[in-house]
Specification:
Layout (H helix, E strand, L loop, with lengths): L1 H18 L10 E5 L2 E4 L3 E4 L5 E7 L3 E4 L8 E5 L4 E4 L4 E4 L6
Antiparallel strand pairs: 1-2, 1-4, 3-8, 4-7, 5-6, 5-8
């Protein structure tokens, strides 16, 4: 039951990210580290060819881990600002566009 609730929460968060329609693309502020490689003020999709995929999100936005390259396939998890995650089946990480409200 706990796992099902966590999955539903992840899917709900993913849906809210996907439903947001940005006025324009804006990079996240901070550093995103994907498999030890740092990206300052990241924007867009970052592929990886290492397993397991490690993500250290030191930005001000959540990022999304996908099972396929080029941010395709299944959404595996959302890594919030300040969080670190290891994804056994992750192949890419997306920094969604944000609004400048």
């Amino acid at each position: 039951m706990k796992r099902a609730m966590k999955t539903l929460g992840t899917l709900a968060a993913a849906a809210s990210i996907a439903m947001a329609v940005p006025a324009f693309a804006q990079a996240a502020a901070g550093t995103l580290i994907v498999d030890g490689r740092a990206y300052q003020n990241p924007q867009g999709c970052y592929d990886s060819n290492r397993w397991p995929l490690t993500v250290d999100n030191q930005t001000d936005q959540p990022v999304v881990v996908y099972s396929g390259p080029h941010c395709s396939g299944d959404l595996l998890r959302i890594v919030g600002p300040g969080e670190r995650a290891v994804s056994e089946f992750g192949q890419s990480v997306l920094v969604p566009d944000s609004n400048d409200d």
